[in-house]
Design a protein that fits this description.
The chain is elongated. The two termini are about 55 Å apart. A hairpin with a 5-residue loop joins strand 12 and strand 13. The strands form 2 sheets. Strands 1, 4, 5, 6, 9, 10 and 11 form a 7-stranded mixed beta sheet that branches. Strands 2, 3, 7, 8, 12 and 13 form a 6-stranded antiparallel beta sheet that branches. It has 2 helices and 13 strands, in the order βαβββββββαβββββ. With about 325 residues, the chain is mostly beta strands.
């Protein structure tokens, strides 16, 4: 691992640089530089890779990798009592639809001062132990990239005026979280229902608009970029893993329009509600990496954020469930 404090290092102290020499670099401290007397050759590199790593690289021993995944609770089929019928209320989903909101075209500019960066280099210069020396003349070519939205939510909690059904707004809205909202249909004017459907005892279809005036998004993203860099020290493959230090607010606004959603009728002992939630995808457009004249690595790109709204109407229904008690 290369220190972040090397004199030729253009990264900040929160940057980890890993050197993965794909040739014979692990043992070159025992031989003159750019020779292949490291106990391996290009033909036997794969065969001797494990030996070289153990003998020369002093790879630290680490604890076993912890499995952070889980499956959740699994009922013990042998510990339950007898099955019996019980009365219960369940949320019946009447309708469920998704629609994409207005896309946000954001411009980002990140440096090691406002992001966490892990840089991994692979030497493409044959049997060499050289570390990449990067300056403003270095040429980066990004060949593969991806982005992921780690955190995103409407910058301000959406008020009741941000939800419109058939031109009517609710008297109140419940914010379950930064991306989840609950709207009892009883909080709307009864005119959201179609008279003909009401007379026939049927549900009504109505348009739904959310954030008609637009809302900004606060987001935090991470990126992976791979490619090659050519500098005075040679040609290297690189892989950058970039995490934004903190969330930022979008420069543009988004809004959502769902042409129709089915509204359940309001009956006694039922609680018809509209549930609204948001999720987000992203895509990099023309990512670029440069070294500025003052020796600072700069990552710039357009970031297309695609918000999606999912709307569901649900109603409490009294049902009979056949269940088995767990001892």
């Amino acid at each position: 691992m290369m220190s972040c404090n090397n004199s030729n290092n253009i990264f900040s102290n929160n940057t980890k640089i890993l050197k993965r020499d794909g040739s014979c670099g692990c043992g070159c401290d025992r031989e003159p530089e750019n020779t292949c007397g490291c106990g391996c050759s290009h033909e036997t590199q794969a065969e001797n890779n494990e030996i070289r790593l153990n003998d020369f690289c002093n790879v630290p021993e680490c604890p076993p990798v912890k499995n952070f995944c889980c499956e959740g609770i699994t009922p013990d089929r042998n510990s339950g009592g007898k099955s019996k019928d019980i009365f219960a209320y369940v949320n019946q989903i009447v309708d469920s639809k998704s629609v994409q909101g207005t896309q946000l075209n954001e411009m980002i500019r990140l440096t090691p001062q406002n992001c966490d960066l892990i840089a991994e280099f692979t030497d493409c210069n044959g049997c060499s132990c050289a570390q990449p020396v990067l300056d403003s003349d270095s040429c980066f070519k990004v060949l593969a990239y991806e982005s992921k939205i780690d955190v995103a939510f409407p910058t301000a909690t959406l008020p009741n005026t941000a939800f419109v059904i058939n031109k009517y707004i609710p008297s109140a809205v419940i914010s379950d979280s930064r991306n989840m909202y609950e709207l009892p249909l009883a909080n709307f004017n009864n005119a959201i229902y179609n008279d003909i459907c009401t007379l026939e005892g049927r549900n009504s279809s109505a348009p739904l608009i959310v954030a008609p005036m637009g809302t900004t998004i606060t987001y935090q993203a991470s990126f992976v970029l791979c490619g090659t860099v050519t500098s005075n020290s040679g040609v290297f493959k690189f892989k950058f893993i970039i995490d934004m230090d903190e969330p930022i607010t979008s420069c543009h606004c988004t809004s959502f329009m769902l042409p129709e959603i089915c509204l359940p009728r309001i009956n006694c002992f039922e609680d018809p509600r509209l549930l609204v939630g948001f999720c987000y995808d992203s895509q990099l457009v023309a990512p670029n990496i440069d070294i500025s004249n003052d020796g600072q690595l700069v990552f710039t790109s357009a970031l297309m954020i695609s918000p999606t709204m999912k709307a569901e109407t649900v109603v409490n229904k009294k049902v009979i469930l056949n269940v088995r008690e767990i001892c």
